[in-house]
Amino acid sequence: MDALPTPALILDRLAMERNLAAMSKHLAAHRKKARPHAKTHKCALIAQAQLAHGAAGLCAAKVGEAAALILAGVPRVLITSPLQSPGKVAVLAELSQRAAELLLVVDSMAGLELLQKYLPAEARVGVVLDIDIEMGRTGIRVLDEARRIVAAARADQRLGFAGVQHYAGHLQHIASFGERKERSLESWHNALAFAQAAADELPPIVSGGGSGTYAIDVAVPEITDLQVGSYLFMDREYRDIESCGGASFTEFEVALTVACTAISAPLADAGAATLNGGFKAFASDSGVPVPYDGVQGKFRFAGDEHGVFRVVSGQSRPRLGDVLRFVVPHCDPTVNLHDVYWVLEADGLVHSLWPITARGLVW
Ligand SMILES: Cc1ncc(COP(=O)(O)O)c(C=O)c1O
Fold first, then answer.
1. Fewer CB near the last or first residue (10 Å), C or N of the chain?
2. 233 C-alpha vs ligand 1 centroid, how far in Å?
3. What pTM does this model have?
4. What is the position in ligand 1's atom list of the atom closest to the CA of 138?
């Protein structure tokens, strides 16, 4: 650890493997599949590990992320955000020739018509109807338009109506498990009624949900696969909410940390040391990093490249040169700040670097 060029994104491979195994066991027990979201890890090697654990395919947030995965050999990808650019349809057409299955969510007739206008005859892109109930981000709410999308997709041999998606992101971090459960089941109830009315019969894929509702949504018989993402790494945001089994969400282990080095100590008298990780090492949309390995104290951002870590009174402050690891506040955007995972093995050493294949591909 002391030899790494910090700040370094550390992946504890065995903890990740245990998370993968726990999720696939849970889903298999409920006869569901994972369609894990690659927006969390953006890494083709991890996508392959998820497929090896029985995933139905991978989700990608955007076309760029899907391109990185498919060009690296991931065979089945669902793009979970709608698009409105002719240039991206051209990329989709190309990708559809290289993937065993390429699926795209559509939530407007304009989106469907764009595909019809720009996809060449040989392209094959399955349409997944994205349904919004109350989140207000993407997804359709207008039944008549949804019916037209389904009919047009069914009638076009380049497309086909492959499935429906419902993702209630605003429910994933509700602290109370009971409230999260009630609202997620209600949201799915409404989404499925909408899907049934739009399509007359449910398509082969009914996909959605996330790590916050992974133990809840399995009770919905119509759902075929869950788009879980963060369970793989577990960030501070998720650790803080209640799980089905208790006060904090510990069914999955923290597998992702950022290691920083103490490089200066102007506030030594206050028990603080300055670390070499700031906004460029940790995404800061969801609070501050928390110490991983037992040291008690508080981190505060001190700019792009720095953070100040102050220990609780009675503890000795980090010495210059000490390396400290932190649980990240929010895993997905933190990963997108780094080029590689430093992969930690059981002996406590880093043996390999895994490229973050889709890093920066936010289009
Ligand atoms: C459409 C969609 N599905 C699934 C996920 C994964 O959610 P989580 O990281 O909570 O498991 C996300 C995350 O934002 C998402 O946007």
1. C
2. 13
3. 0.97
4. 1
Determine which helix (DSSP H) or strand (DSSP E) holds 118, and give its type and residue range. helix 109-118
Q: How many CB atoms lie within 10 A of CB 144?
A: 8
Q: Could you tell me if residue 234 is inside a domain?
A: no
**Structure tokens given for 46:** 């991890």
* Residue 37 near residue 61, CB atoms below 8 Å: yes
Residue 243: inside a domain? no
CA–centroid distance, residue 50 to ligand 1 (Å)? 15
Q: How many domains does the chain have?
A: 1
Q: Hey, CA dihedral for 39, 179, 238, 271, is it positive or negative?
A: positive
327: which strand partners?
257, 290
- Among 83, 227, 232, the mutation site with the greatest number of ligand 1 atoms within 8 A of its Cβ is 227
Mean pLDDT of the chain: 97
Q: What is the residue with the minimal CA distance to atom 14 of ligand 1?
A: 169
Give the CATH number of the domain where residue 21 resides.
Answer: 3.20.20.10
What are the pocket residues of ligand 1 if the criterion is a CB atom closer than 6 Å to any ligand atom? 37, 39-40, 59, 80, 167, 169, 172, 210-212, 227-230
Q: What is the pLDDT of residues 115-132, one digit of tens each?
A: 999 999 999 999 999 999
Virtual torsion, Cα 301, 307, 311, 317, nearest 10 deg: -170
- Give the position, in ligand 1's atom list, of the atom nearest the Cα of 231: 11
Tens of pLDDT, residues 304-334: 999 999 999 988 999 999 999 999 999 999 9
**Domain span at residue 109?**
13-229
Other Cβ atoms less than 10 A from the Cβ of 173: the count is 17
- Predicted confidence (pLDDT) per residue in 224-233, tens digit: 999 999 999 9
Residue 212's pLDDT band, with cuts at 50, 70 and 90, is: very high
